[in-house]
């Protein structure tokens, strides 16, 4: 497992390193410079990112949230103090675990595990949502194509669907492909 630790303080980074010492086959990278951080993380390609920000200013916090938004990785963020606005911003930025005043070596592994589990759960939810939206969009397209066939050819709804299904089977295509072709042809013929 590749873990990137982002911390401008070598002392705080060593606490995180100590907490990760028990992990087998773990490759740890410590980044202390904010400049070029996204590119450096891209080169490292870590499995997990741990950010220790101590007591950051609002600007620094926002900069790290911007980094979080572009990473598609589990992220645990450690801060000394927080407020509701910062917590909400961290959730929006995709931070998997936001830990306030909790940097201790013995807590690193459970926090890391939690960040990974939350990230995976959220990723599954996003995938399920994308699939559901895709299926809904396909259903709407198929319904629109059925309406076109019903209006233009005076077919009842079951017959319009049966014709689309028959065309899909005879052309070895999906019914959504046939529906999209019907809609495109209708537009080209001056339909709305």
Could you tell me the strand content as a percent range? 5-15%
Q: Which structural category fits the helices and strands?
A: alpha/beta
Radius of gyration: 26 Å
CATH superfamily of the largest domain: Response regulator
CATH architecture of the largest domain: 3-Layer(aba) Sandwich
Number of structurally distinct domains: 2
Give the count of helical stretches.
Answer: 7
Task: Tell me the overall shape.
Answer: elongated
Q: Helix amount, in percent? A: 55-70%
CATH-defined fold name of the largest domain: Rossmann fold
List the helices and strands in order: EHEHEHEHEHHH
Strands of the largest sheet, in order across it?
2-1-3-4-5
Separation, N- and C-terminal Cα atoms: 54 Å
Low-pLDDT stretches: none
Average pLDDT over all residues: 87
Total strand count, please? 5
Oligomer: single chain
The biggest beta sheet is recorded as: 5 strands, parallel
């Amino acid at each position: 497992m590749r873990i990137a630790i982002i911390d401008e303080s070598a002392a705080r980074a060593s606490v995180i390193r100590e907490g990760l010492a028990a992990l087998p086959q773990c490759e740890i990278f410590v980044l202390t410079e904010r400049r070029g951080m996204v590119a450096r993380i891209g080169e490292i390609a870590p499995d997990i990112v741990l950010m220790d920000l101590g007591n950051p200013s609002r600007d620094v916090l926002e900069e790290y949230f911007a980094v979080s938004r572009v990473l598609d990785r589990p992220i645990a963020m450690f801060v000394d103090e927080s407020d509701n606005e910062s917590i909400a911003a961290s959730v929006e930025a995709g931070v998997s675990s936001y830990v306030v005043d909790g940097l201790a070596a013995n807590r690193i592994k459970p926090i890391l595990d939690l960040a990974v589990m939350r990230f995976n759960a959220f990723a599954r939810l996003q995938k399920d949502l994308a699939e559901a939206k895709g299926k809904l969009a396909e259903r709407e397209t198929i319904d629109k194509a059925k309406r076109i066939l019903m209006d233009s050819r005076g077919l009842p709804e079951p017959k319009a669907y049966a014709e689309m299904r028959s065309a899909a089977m005879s052309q070895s295509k999906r019914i959504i492909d046939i529906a999209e072709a019907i809609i495109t042809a209708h537009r080209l013929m001056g339909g709305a």
